[in-house]
Design goal:
The structure holds 2 protein chains of 2 kinds.
Chain A lengths: L7 E7 L24 H14 L3 E6 L8 H10 L3 E6 L6 H10 L3 E6 L4 H8 L4 H13 L4 E7 L7 H10 L4 E6 L4 H5 L1 H4 L3 H16 L5 E3 L4 H4 L13 E4 L5 E2 L20 H7 L1 H5 L16 H4 L4 H8 L16 H9 L16
Chain B lengths: L8 H15 L5 H8 L4 H28 L3 H15 L7 H11 L4 H5 L6 H16 L2 H7 L3 H18 L9 H24 L3 H29 L2 E3 L4 E5 L4 E6 L2 E5 L3 H7 L6 H11 L6 H14 L3 E3 L2
Antiparallel strand pairs in B: 1-5, 2-3, 3-4
Helix pairs in contact in B: 1-11, 3-4, 3-5, 3-7, 3-11, 7-11, 8-10, 8-11, 9-10, 13-14
Classes of the chains: A alpha/beta, B mainly alpha.
C-alpha cells in the first residue's frame, strides 16, 4: 500500500490541563497517557517528521504550557524546519513567557475561548479562566503573532455567537474557528446537555454569513455539524493520510481518539522510528484507503470526499469502528443520530466536568 | 401565510434610492481617491482602459433588454440607448467619446480596443452583468440599470475632479462625462417610471431591489479589480515559503494551513516583492513568457487567490 505524506503533526505534549471543560474530546482515562517524551525525544520526533514531509506542527494537549521544557520543545520543532504553532487555553503563560517562545521559533498561536460572557465561559471550563485568557490574547497580538481563536460550540453558547465573533475581532484574531463539539470522550457523556437544536444552528449559520460580509472580518471557519447534515465529516482528511498525532506517551495515531478503539495496535515513538510507526503499524493501516469499507461506503461516490467519516464515532455510537459513520443519512446505524437530535429537544441535564479519575 | 403588502410607489422608489446611497460605487475607495485627486497617472490609465470593456458591454446588454420587451413604445425608447453608445455613424456616440478620453489620458486607441489591459476580474464583472440581463426578465433587467439614477451625479463630481486634479488630461477627454450628465438622468427617469409601474406586488418590488443590488456589486467588483491591480503584493510575514522541488513546486505554510504551488505559481510569487504592483508582476511574467497565452489573467488571478489565502499581503 502506498502511504500518503503527512503534512501536519499534532504533538500532544500533555493531556494534563488546568481547565475541566465538559466538552473535552481527550481520552477519558487520560491518566493512562503520561507525559512520556522529554524535550530531546520530541526534538528527534520533529526531525523525523520533517523527513517524512511534515511542514506544520501544532503543539497541543491538554495544555502544552504545563510542560516546563516548552521552550526547548519549540526550539526543536523550529530547528527541524516545521512551522510551529501553539494551541493553548492561555491561562499559564505571561507575555514574557510567550516572548521567550517567540525567540525559540514559535510562529503562531491558537487560543481557546469558551464563550463571550465570563460567567458562562468559566462555567463550561469548570474553573475561572476567561479574564486571564483575554489578557493572553492581547499578549499574543502585542508580540505580533497571528492569532487564531477557537471556540467550541454547543447549545449553551450558540445563542451568543454574535458576541463571540465580536470578541474575536476585538482581540485582533486573524482567524476564528467555530468548532462544533465532537462527541468523543467527555463530550459524549455530556451530549444531551451540549447538543444544539437545528433551529439554533440555522440561526448561527445566518449570524456567521452576516459576519463574513463585514469589512476586515476575521476568517470564520464554521460548518453545520455532522449530526445535522446527514453527511459525515471528512475526518482528519482520511485515516492516516495527512495528519499524524503523537500522544504524550509517544503513541503515533491517525487521530487522538484512535487509541480508544479496540483491537488496534499502534506503535510508540521512540521505541520505533516515527516513519515505521506511521507507515507500518497495523492500527495505522486498519482504515487507510478504502479496502476496509463496507456497504454503503464501499460503492458510494462520496467515499473519496468523506472517507467514510469518523471511525471513532462509528465505534462510540455503534460499537464497531468499521461501520459506516452513523452521521451519514445512508448509514444503517443513522437512527442513533436521529435519536440524539430528538433528545436535544428536551430540557438538558447538568454538565459533568472532566476529571482525571474518569468517573 | 399571506404575502406582505406591496410598497407604495414612493416607498418602493425610496428603497431603491437607499440601496444606491449605500452600495453604489460612488462610495468605493478607488472612486473616492479618483475624486480626491490622489490617483496616479497609471491608475487613471488603467481605469480608463478597463472601464472601456464595461462600455462595450452596455449596448449588448441594451440589445438584450430590447429583445425582452413586447411594448413598441418601450422598445422605441430603449433602442435610443444603443444609438447613444454606438452613434448613428462611425466616429460618433459614447463608445467613441470613451476612446477620446482614453487617448487624452495617454493610451493608444488600438491598445484600448484590443482589451490588452483588461483585468480578469473586470472582464468577469462585466460579463456577469450581461449574463444577468440575459437570464432575468424585463423587470429585473430594467431595475438593474437604475444605477443610472446615481450616474448623473457621479459625472458632475467627476468632471470637477478631473478639471481640478488631473489637468494633464485634455479637456476633450471629459466630453463623455458631460454627455452622460443629461443622458443618464433621462434614461434613469424612463427606467424608474417603468419599474414603478410594472412592479405591482411586493415580491416583484423585492426582485427589483435585489437586481439593483446585484448591479451595484458588479460595479463595485470592477473597481475592486482595478484597485487591486495597483496594490503591491508581498509574502505575508506569517508565511513560510518552502521549496518542494522534488514535487515540482513550492509550498507556503501558514498558521493551520499549507498552500501548494504548482505550475507558474512559484515564479509569480517570487516577483511579488512589495515593490511591484500586481499589474507590474503580470507584465514581468508576460515578458518572460512572450509566447504563452493567458499569462496576464493567470498572474492577476494567482495574486488574488494568494491574497485570499493569506499568502500575500498588500502593503500600505
Amino acid at each position: 500500500m502506498s502511504t500518503s505524506r503527512p503534512l501536519n503533526l499534532i504533538a500532544e505534549l500533555s493531556y494534563r490541563c488546568p481547565l475541566r471543560c465538559a466538552y473535552c474530546s481527550n481520552p477519558i482515562a487520560y491518566r493512562d497517557f503520561p507525559d512520556g517524551l522529554d524535550a530531546a525525544a520530541w526534538t528527534r520526533a520533529f526531525d523525523q517528521a520533517a523527513q517524512l514531509g511534515v511542514v506544520h506542527v501544532g503543539l497541543t494537549g491538554g495544555e502544552p504550557c504545563l510542560r516546563d521544557d516548552l521552550e526547548e520543545i519549540v526550539s526543536g520543532a523550529s530547528n527541524a524546519g516545521l512551522y510551529t504553532h501553539l494551541v493553548t487555553a492561555g491561562t499559564l503563560l505571561d507575555r514574557e513567557g510567550l516572548r521567550v517562545l517567540q525567540e525559540a521559533g514559535l510562529r503562531s498561536v491558537q487560543l481557546s475561548l469558551q464563550d463571550a460572557r465570563e460567567e458562562s465561559a468559566d462555567r463550561i471550563a469548570g474553573v475561572k479562566a476567561h479574564a486571564r485568557k483575554l489578557r493572553f490574547g492581547e499578549d499574543v497580538r502585542a508580540l505580533g503573532f497571528p492569532l487564531t481563536v477557537n471556540v467550541v460550540l454547543h447549545r449553551e453558547n450558540l445563542g451568543r455567537l454574535e458576541s463571540i465573533i465580536a470578541l474575536a475581532r476585538s482581540l485582533g484574531a486573524r482567524s476564528l474557528e467555530l468548532a462544533n463539539t465532537q462527541y468523543h470522550g467527555w463530550a459524549l457523556r455530556n451530549r444531551a446537555a451540549l447538543l444544539p437544536t437545528r433551529r439554533q444552528l440555522d440561526e448561527a449559520s445566518q449570524v456567521v454569513a452576516r459576519a463574513r460580509q463585514e469589512a476586515d472580518a476575521p476568517e470564520i471557519l464554521f460548518a453545520m455539524p455532522d449530526y445535522f447534515r446527514n453527511r459525515p465529516k471528512p475526518c482528519m482528511g482520511g485515516w492516516g493520510q495527512r495528519m499524524m498525532v503523537v500522544t504524550p506517551d509517544g503513541r503515533v495515531l491517525p487521530c487522538h481518539g484512535a487509541a480508544e478503539l479496540p483491537g488496534l495496535e499502534f506503535w510508540r515513538f521512540p521505541e520505533r522510528e516515527l516513519a515505521d510507526c506511521w507507515r507500518d503499524a497495523p492500527g495505522m493501516n486498519a482504515f487507510r484507503g478504502e479496502d476496509w469499507m463496507r456497504e454503503p461506503c464501499r460503492s458510494c461516490e462520496a467515499r473519496t470526499r468523506d472517507f467514510g467519516g469518523c471511525r471513532c464515532q462509528a465505534f462510540a455510537l455503534l460499537g464497531d469502528p468499521a461501520e459506516a459513520d452513523p452521521a451519514c443519512g445512508l448509514a444503517p446505524g443513522h437512527g442513533v443520530i436521529e435519536a440524539a437530535r430528538e433528545e436535544a429537544l428536551a430540557d438538558p441535564p447538568d454538565l459533568i466536568h472532566r476529571s482525571a479519575s474518569g468517573s | 401565510m399571506s404575502e406582505p403588502a406591496a410598497w407604495s410607489p414612493e416607498d418602493f422608489e425610496a428603497q431603491l434610492r437607499a440601496l444606491l446611497e449605500d452600495r453604489y460605487h460612488h462610495r468605493h475607495p478607488f472612486n473616492l481617491r479618483m475624486h480626491a485627486g490622489t490617483l496616479t497617472q497609471e491608475e487613471i490609465r488603467s481605469w480608463a482602459a478597463n472601464r472601456y470593456y464595461y462600455q462595450t458591454r452596455i449596448p449588448i446588454k441594451d440589445g438584450l433588454i430590447v429583445a425582452k420587451a413586447s411594448d413598441p413604445d418601450f422598445r422605441r425608447s430603449w433602442v435610443e440607448r444603443i444609438h447613444d453608445h454606438d452613434g448613428r455613424e462611425p466616429g460618433q456616440g459614447g463608445l467613441e467619446l470613451w476612446l477620446v478620453l482614453a487617448e487624452s489620458v495617454g493610451l493608444s486607441r488600438a491598445s484600448v480596443e484590443s482589451f490588452e489591459e483588461v483585468l480578469p476580474g473586470v472582464r468577469r464583472a462585466c460579463d456577469a452583468y450581461v449574463d444577468f440581463v440575459a437570464s432575468h426578465d424585463l423587470l429585473e433587467s430594467v431595475a438593474s440599470s437604475l444605477t443610472e439614477l446615481y450616474a448623473a451625479r457621479i459625472m458632475v463630481d467627476r468632471i470637477a475632479a478631473f478639471e481640478n486634479h488631473y489637468p494633464w488630461v485634455g479637456d476633450s477627454g471629459l466630453d463623455y462625462f458631460r454627455s452622460r450628465t443629461t443622458q443618464a438622468r433621462d434614461d434613469a427617469q424612463f427606467g424608474l417610471e417603468h419599474v414603478r409601474a410594472a412592479a405591482q406586488t411586493r415580491a416583484e418590488q423585492e426582485r427589483c431591489v435585489a437586481a439593483l443590488g446585484r448591479k451595484c456589486e458588479i460595479l463595485w467588483g470592477l473597481l475592486d479589480a482595478v484597485e487591486r491591480a495597483h496594490a503591491r503584493p508581498s509574502l505575508s510575514p506569517h508565511a513560510q515559503l518552502r521549496d518542494e522541488a522534488s514535487e515540482g513546486g513550492a509550498m507556503v505554510v501558514l498558521p493551520e494551513r499549507a498552500v501548494k504551488l504548482g505550475g507558474s505559481g512559484p515564479e509569480i510569487l517570487a516577483l511579488c516583492d512589495g515593490a511591484r504592483s500586481t499589474r507590474e508582476v503580470a507584465r514581468a511574467v508576460q515578458a518572460r513568457h512572450p509566447d504563452a497565452a493567458g499569462v496576464w489573467d493567470e498572474a492577476h488571478d494567482f495574486v488574488d487567490e494568494m491574497s485570499r489565502a493569506g499568502v500575500l499581503d498588500f502593503g500600505e
